[in-house]
Amino acid sequence: MSEAGGAAEAQLNAEAQLSNEHQLTAAAQLSSAAPAIQWYPGHIAKAEKSLAENLAKVDLVIEVRDARIPLATGHPRLQRWIKGKQHLLVINRRDMVSAEARHAWDQWFRAAGQTPWWCDAKVGTGVKQLQTAAIRAGEQLNARRAGRGMKPRPVRALMLGFPNVGKSALINRLVRRKVVDSARRAGVTRSLRWVRLGQDLDLLDAPGVLPPRLDDQLAALRLALCDDIGQAAYEGEAVALAFLRLLTVLEPVAGAGVAAGLLERRYGIAAQDPNAWLEAAASRHTSGDEGRMAQRLLDDFRRAQLGPIALELPPSP
Ligand SMILES: Nc1nc2c(ncn2[C@@H]2O[C@H](COP(=O)(O)OP(=O)(O)OP(=O)(O)O)[C@@H](O)[C@H]2O)c(=O)[nH]1
Ligand SMILES: [Mg+2]
Predict the structure, then answer these.
(1) Secondary structure of the chain in the HEC alphabet?
(2) CA spacing 20 to 30 A to 172: which of 164, 181, 205, 232?
(3) pTM, full prediction
């Protein structure tokens, strides 16, 4: 992306944050009694160090974000990491948001000078197009090398993004076999690993990275909801209560995908005060165990059992 594009995105980011914050802060934040959400385990600190060491070997950074939260999964150090390199932006988990949300974000990113590659790494949608774009980046690289009398070589691409956004799943899809571990929790990939794709592409799978301090607690809440940070970082019940508040705020928002009467239809308990809802749902489904009910609600969202729900949307023009 050009510098102008970067500045435009920063501006749009700030506006989107403001608008989302305005919409959501009051209603959806963690209660003031809940401890702050923080997660920066040792393996991520270590991964970031070896990432910095390996960055010099990389021509292309494939940045992967989560379609449910494209802003909260944007890393503040990204511009530093992609300096002097080619950059492709993948928005993965496209199946987990509505077509309307995807369209709105697509326009928003394009207005900021970026082309998003929409993928579903679980079934492979968009992966072929991503592969073509990465190989094209390699052709440019090799044209430059040829100009300097150097032999062609495969383009070296780093998969970069927050934990659990689907980096390893994308690599497995790209090479069409299970070469790296991929599972439904944050922190699966523990060390860096090169994987070759044909003659043209070397892919570097890396552990998810995230900022050492989660200053924006609303973004941290969204990361927790999407399982993009470890469960040790938060109290499940507090996050489930905040999620219930968030659902109420999102229900009237076009494109968010929260169907009217969703909670009642799925759990037989109509939406109401979040504490009261959790208590009623627990007494109906988990023998009064509110912790277990909170976990069930979060799992249902994460497995898309509540339908495709976009937790973040760009500001309306
Ligand atoms: N529905 C859906 N699930 C996906 C998609 N991409 C990945 N997943 C699933 O999400 C889970 C996490 O994927 P991983 O590939 O392990 O994520 P990662 O980014 O490598 O995670 P870390 O190694 O922990 O940083 C896996 O269970 C995948 O099957 C997608 O586009 N849609
Ligand atoms: Mg991984």
Answers:
(1) CCHHHHHHHHHHHHHHHHHHHHHHHHHHCCCCCCCCCCCCCHHHHHHHHHHHHHHHHCCEEEEEEECCCCCCCCCCCHHHHHCCCEEEEEEECHHHCCHHHHHHHHHHHHHCCCCEEECECCCCECHHHHHHHHHHHHHHHHHHHHHCCCCCCCEEEEEEECCCCCHHHHHHHHHCCCCCCCCCCCCCCCCCEEEEECCCEEEEECCCCCCCCCCCHHHHHHHHHCCCCCHHHCCHHHHHHHHHHHHHHHCCCCCCCCCCCHHHHHHCCCCCCHHHHHHHHHHHHCCCCHHHHHHHHHHHHHCCCCCCCCCCCCCCC
(2) 232
(3) 0.91
